[in-house]
Amino acid sequence: MYETFGEKEEKELHLMRKRFGKLRFETDHNIEKSKLMSTYIEQTKQDARSVLLNQTPQSKMNLNLQMSRLQTNTSLMDSNSTKRNLFQKKTNSNNRNFSARTTNRITSLPNNYFFNFPKWMEERQDFQKWKQHEDFDIHLKIVSICKSESFRRDDGQKTIVALYLQTLSLFKLMPLEMLKELGGRLTYIELKTEADLTLCRYGEKGECMFIIFKGKVDVISFDGKLLKVFGSNEHVGRSALETDAPRNATLITNFESHILKLQRWDFQQCLNNLFKIERPKWKKFVETIHFFDSFHPHKIERMCDELKGRFMSTKDCLYKAGDQVDNFYIVKNGTLVKNVVVDLEESNRWPIGAKEWEKKTITTCQRIPLQYKAQSLLGYYEIVTFEQLQLKKRTETIDAAEDSFVLFIPKTLFTEIFDADDQKKFRDLYTRLHPTSFEILISKVKSEETKKKQEFQIINKAITDGLLSVPQHLLEKKFQKYSKVFDNAKNKLYQFKQSREIIKREKRTKNMISIYE
């Protein structure tokens, strides 16, 4: 009698079942193993059939039982492999869709480190505990970094602080390398006692600027009146970064606030490092201003060697009427504005008799803004007209309409570099660009309006002529394309409105639950 299965073959078959049952048949290598297993099973069946005739009834029954188990395991392996393949394809598809949605959600936000978690996850208690950890919340991480010593902060920590600073006004135009350098120098103010709540007092020497990471800061005048309240992500004490002039107000905060401090010495050191790197770029920028083409190259080169820079946030004042004449400015980035106040008179009359008329004149005060964008020159009028008008103080006020960056040189250097003939060119430029009377101002505004209308008519005519010369089938194709874009926009708007209604319902439900609780 032949032995059907020995102990050695039984163990080997058991190991093969155990080994191949856990494989995912996806790669060519795994498919080859699957075929090997199938070949081994078929060979085992043939060997069993060859000795089946010489078996006892009991042996035949045991053999058939083992063969059925072997066949069952084979079918289970095939079905599991198919299920795994389908599940893997579905998982990969879901992962791709989720990754695309996540990417769109994150890149659409101003800060790349914000993310909205699903509602079911936020309601979990362990998730709430996890949110309190600094590695979860980027804000807590920034506070923790600023609490540590400057020399212990690595490049990654400085980058985290730099990304936060990049979202704030005044820092938006600064290069990332400078922000990282500032991120290594920002310090956190510990508020432990009542005395710590007073950040600075009126009349004290200004040495630092304060960034309100979270909370508020009250600005109190010397007589105790509340002038203004600054909130989260705002800065206060900006002038202390440039001069050590005495504080013009008292700053008070509360214990719930998180305040960061930037010393003037650290800021000026970072600025000087930036100026050394950026000065060649400034020279190329100045060379693009056509007004300087008429000057001798060595004068422009000397001016570029002496240039410095100043970052401005929205509503910062470059200088105001009555200030001392100090610098000559060139706008490099952003927009600055000067508001010209004019009185407009409107007259009306009506008869009150045969030869009598009653006349009424209404005078209104109107502000006309004059904008200064990149390549505009500022602050030179009082310098170049000093011999004629003897102006020692500013006659106009210039404010920043948005985050801006200006280049400047001191008044003394300006008069050294540019002689009397050069200064006459500046006076002619001012007369050509700036209105010197109300009539000139009105005519300037009307001419600009007429120019814009003409440009619109030219563009409109060009579009119309272009459409007439385009074949009809191309126009239809373009129309279909933009119709799809319009439909997609409508669908997204509809989805947004639906999600907004869901959010509103959830908020109302929460309010009702809190009321009844």
Structure description:
With 517 residues, the protein is an alpha+beta fold. It folds into four domains: 7-105; 138-266, Jelly Rolls; 308-434, Sandwich (Jelly Rolls); 470-517. 52% of the residues lie in helices and 18% in strands. The protein contains 16 helices and 16 strands. It has helices at residues 7-20, 28-50, 57-107, 119-122, 125-131, 138-147, 155-165, 176-183, 264-287, 297-306, 381-384, 386-389, 411-417, 420-433, 438-468, 472-516; strands at 187-188, 198-200, 208-214, 217-220, 226-230, 234-236, 250-253, 258-263, 308-312, 317-319, 327-333, 336-351, 357-372, 377-378, 398-400, 404-410. The protein has a four-stranded antiparallel beta sheet. Strands 2-7-4-5 form a four-stranded antiparallel beta sheet, with no helix packed on it. Strands 9-16-11-14 form a four-stranded antiparallel beta sheet. A hairpin with a 5-residue loop joins strand 12 (336-351) and strand 13 (357-372). Helix 6 crosses helix 7 and helix 9 packs antiparallel against helix 10 (297-306). The chain is extended and about 130 Å long. Mean pLDDT is 76; it is low at 22-30 and 98-113. One of its GO terms (molecular function) is cAMP-dependent protein kinase inhibitor activity. This is Cyclic nucleotide-binding domain-containing protein.
